[in-house]
Amino acid sequence: METTLIVGACQAGVQLAATLRDLGDTDPIVMIGEEAHRPYQRPPLSKGWLKGELEPDDVVLRTRQWFADREIALIAGDRVVTIHRESNGTGIAQTLGGRQIAFTRLALTTGAAVRRLALPGTDYRGVHYLRDADDAIALGPALAEPGAERVVVIGGGFIGLEAASAARQLGKHVTIVEGTGRLIGRVVAEPTSDFYLAAHRRRGTEVLLGARLARILGEDASAAGRRGSVTGVELEDGRVIPADLVVIGIGVLPRVELAVQLGLEVAGGIVVDEACRTSDGRTVAAGDCAIMPNPYPAGVGGMVRIESVNNALEQAKVAAATLLGRDAAYVSVPWFWSDQADLKLQIAGLSTGYDDVVVRGDPDAEKFAVLYYRDGRLIAADCVNQPAEFLAIKQALSKGKTIPSLAAADTGVPLKQSVVDAPVALAS
Ligand SMILES: Cc1cc2nc3c(=O)[nH]c(=O)nc-3n(C[C@H](O)[C@H](O)[C@H](O)COP(=O)(O)OP(=O)(O)OC[C@H]3O[C@@H](n4cnc5c(N)ncnc54)[C@H](O)[C@@H]3O)c2cc1C
After folding, report:
1. For residue 238, which phi and psi values (nearest 5 degrees)?
2. Which residue has the higher pLDDT, 87 or 112?
3. Strand 303-304's sheet: what is its strand order?
4. Ligand 1 atom nearest residue 309's Cα
5. Residue 377 Cβ < 6 Å to ligand 1
6. What are the sequence ranges of the domains in the chain?
7. Ligand 1: centre distance to CA 11 (Å)
8. What does the alpha-carbon distance between residue 426 and residue 421 come to, in Å, rounded to a whole number?
9. Mutation test of ligand 1: which of 60, 78, 186, 307 has the most ligand atoms closer than 8 Å to its C-beta?
């Protein structure tokens, strides 16, 4: 009999356990997560949750009954601190709470931890991060407070933009402070960045680009008789932006500490192959913690670490099959979404290594798509309020097809009519 230990109880961990059972594994499964909550979805935390539209049950991934029915032992609120593994594959995990968990199969779904801002002032009251349920539980009511009128969001990535959007919808005065020259610059091309800049400004949010932060300012703690409250942020050029609330969204770092301890290869994440197998050949890893060869187009563009629900689920399915000794490979087209006010962004594929973009439709109408090409072949697209275009592109990509760029630019012809065989193999 085998015992599977899954470290990390969120999107990837829960899916991995579910797939093991779906594939007929009846052996013991133990899943442990350090957060003292039932496994939950993170995406709503920066969307409906901040606007006060959701209850805890709305974000929970699976009920207690679901775990019980599948005989998946879930331990919440305890952290695995060390793992010892013998050469025959058996091992013992030690937790902070004193548990010792023996296993024969090991899956790391440890996710990512928020990147902390290394500047003075982050400990003032009213300074928030947004990664975990606890962060959202603190930030939601803080935003709802009538005194929290001026909100500064540090970081113009997806989390920052979604938090800014929620705050603006709550009627706050919102300023986004982004250090680089454009929004979401790590993921999308200029037309999409430019669109989001204009769209947030249109909705009354101030956006400062190329704005380097010097420190967070707050009231004198001793005068307040407690931890002082935030009063604003100061930029390197001396400008001060007053704030009652500061939300920091400057990215995440993969949780690789257990992988390092196990001697697994780590390079910007836990290195896995297409089967989600780590460098020891038997441990698997999936989700935000894992970095793998680009799944689409396979082998092109090097290694990628993808932070998305879809990726966590797809990798987890593959990892589960691998643990059971089946042949499995992650070959599906990655996709992602982000909701900001009434703007629904859906991204199909990965734009890594693109050399051309085509804008289809009118960004000013807030309905358009940006298609990414490499060597003349479609590799990805950002679709804003264009669900049908997104589906057509995702389907074309998953069949290995392309859409010629001239046809893509012609909004008079439905995209799905322009899908053709991809003529060239991409250079890696
Ligand atoms: C606010 C927010 C909004 C998002 N919105 C979107 C969106 O709109 N669309 C989208 O596709 N994606 C979105 N994402 C990203 C998506 O939620 C993540 O990609 C996904 O949660 C990754 O799942 P995971 O299981 O790999 O990792 P995680 O969700 O990070 O879970 C890993 C878990 O492992 C636990 N853990 C780590 N180490 C240990 C240990 N040693 N012992 C025990 N437990 C441990 C962690 O505490 C954590 O609970 C969002 C993320 C956030 C934070």
Report:
1. 95, -15
2. 112
3. 270-271, 290-293, 303-304
4. 11
5. no
6. 4-46+59-112+252-323, 127-248, 342-421
7. 7
8. 13
9. 307
List Cβ neighbours of 148 (8 Å cut-off, separation of 6 or more): 126, 142, 172, 244, 245
As a whole number, mean pLDDT of residues 396-409 equals: 94
Whether residue 221 is predicted with pLDDT greater than 70 in this model: the reply is no
Is 131 near ligand 1, meaning CB less than 6 Å away? yes
Which spans in 352-417 are helix H?
387-398, 405-409
Q: Which residue lies with its CA nearest to atom 3 of ligand 1?
A: 43
For the cut 90, the answer to whether the pLDDT of residue 184 exceeds it is yes
User: Phi and psi (nearest 5°) for 327?
Assistant: -75, 125
| C-alpha of residue 377 to centroid of ligand 1, in Å | 32
Superfamily holding 342-421: FAD/NAD-linked reductase, C-terminal dimerisation domain (3.30.390.30)
The answer to whether the CB of 112 is under 6 A from ligand 1 is yes
- Going from the Cα of 216 to the center of ligand 1, the distance in angstroms, rounded, reads 27
Quote the ligand 1 centre to 112 CA distance (angstroms): 6
Distance 308 CA to ligand 1 centre (A): 8
Q: Does domain 4-46+59-112+252-323 have CATH number 3.30.70.1130?
A: no
Burial 395-424 (b: 16+ CB within 10 A, else e): ebbeeebbbbbebbeeeeeebeebbeebee
Does domain 127-248 fall under CATH 2.60.120.10? My reply is: no
Q: What is the mean pLDDT of residues 309-319?
A: 98
C-beta 312 within 6 A of ligand 1: yes
Peptide bond into 297 cis (omega under 30): yes
DSSP state of 416: G
β-bridge partners, 248: 129, 154
The 3-state DSSP composition of the chain as helix, strand, coil percent (nearest 5) reads 25, 30, 45
**DSSP single-letter state for residue 48:** T
Minimum CA distance residue for ligand 1 atom 26:
287
Predicted confidence at residue 247, as pLDDT, reads 98
User: What pLDDT does 296 receive?
Assistant: 80
Q: Whose CA is closest to atom 34 on ligand 1?
A: 8
